[in-house]
Amino acid sequence: MIQVYVLWLREMKRLVRSKSRFFSSLFMPLMFLLFLSSGFSGVKFQGIENYTEYLTPGIAAMAVVFSSTFAGLSVLWDREFGFLKEISVAPVSNTAVVCGRIAGSATTSTLQAMAIVILSIPIGFSTTLYGVLTSFFFVVLMAVTFTGMGLVFASVIKDFHGFGMVMNFVIFPLFFLSGAMFPISKLPSFIRIFAYANPMFYGVSGMRLALISNCLSPAYLLISLFFSVITVLVAARAFERI
Q1: According to the 3-state scheme, what is the secondary structure of the chain?
Q2: Which domain holds residue 220?
Q3: How remote is the C-alpha of 65 from its chain's centroid?
Q4: CB 3.0-4.6 Å disulfide test: which of 18, 176, 178, 222 passes with 200?
Q5: CB 149 within 8 A of CB 231
Q6: Do the Cβ atoms of 142 and 61 come closer than 8 Å?
Q7: How many other CB atoms sit within 10 Å of the CB of residue 237?
Q8: CB-side exposure of 180: number of CA atoms within 13 Å?
Q9: 209, 130 in Cβ contact below 8 A?
Q10: Is the alpha carbon torsion for 51, 204, 139, 161 positive or negative?
Q11: Which pLDDT belongs to residue 219?
């Protein structure tokens, strides 16, 4: 556990030293939330009375997913400057390295998501403390899942620019198939099949139930946990190739 803690602490020190990166990463999700919630305020989806309340969990999840997946970029920098070579000769297992990186990235992503939820309250979003605390579980599991995914891609892709292009190619379809911006019931049935295989869908749905209905869904929680465990195991195996 000490190895995981040390790697987590390294990520936290990096976050503290670059506060501007943390706050600037909130800008795009907040712009999405502000403009979409106001622009679609008059649009009525079936079963949705307040679009701001529907959209906020999805935008918070978007911040988690984008921040978590691009955490794999730090692996490319560490490989470029030799830090990974130092770890490889240390008596540290690949699983500990992966868990430490995932813990650091998940902490950062969770803070970003909670900040977006809090900042959305002045523009019309309402929730309870219980809802925020319950949604915390889904935020963490999404962060773990997509950080692991980012590490898997970082173990395969060696180029910085290629990593960004590939991640955008993967993440945007997952985002649109998650129900973050509109109900997936509006999608054709053959596309909904892909949505149900999307780990972000269960995170967004679980967050929305928690924040709006103060309800914890065991089914969504277990499915999110399943995806998290799988990606951590795959990332630990893939890390051996770095």
Answers
A1: CHHHHHHHHHHHHHHHHCHHHHHHCCHHHHHHHHHHHHHCCCCCCCCCCCHHHHHHHHHHHHHHHHHHHCCHHHHHHHHHCCHHHHHHCCCCCHHHHHHHHHHHHHHHHHHHHHHHHHHCHHHCCCCCHHHHHHHHHHHHHHHHHHHHHHHHHHHHCCCHHHHHHHHHHHHHHHHHCCCCCCCHHHCCHHHHHHHHCCHHHHHHHHHHHHHHHCCCCHHHHHHHHHHHHHHHHHHHHHHHHC
A2: 2-241
A3: 3
A4: 178
A5: yes
A6: yes
A7: 14
A8: 28
A9: no
A10: negative
A11: 92
pLDDT at 46 over 70: no
Please report the pLDDT score of residue 141 as a whole number: 92
Q: How far is CA 156 from CA 24, 89, 153, in A?
A: 28, 21, 5
Residue 128 phi, psi (nearest 5): -125, 165
Asked if residue 64 lies in contact with residue 149, where contact means CB atoms within 8 angstroms, the answer is no
Q: For 32-43, what is the mean pLDDT? A: 75
Q: Count of alpha carbons within 13 Å of 81, Cβ hemisphere only?
A: 6
Tokens of 145: 């899942």
* Number of independent structural domains in the chain: 1
Interatomic CA distance for residues 207 and 139, integer angstroms: 7
Read off the amino acid at residue 75.
Answer: V
Split at pLDDT 50, 70, 90, the class of 84 is low
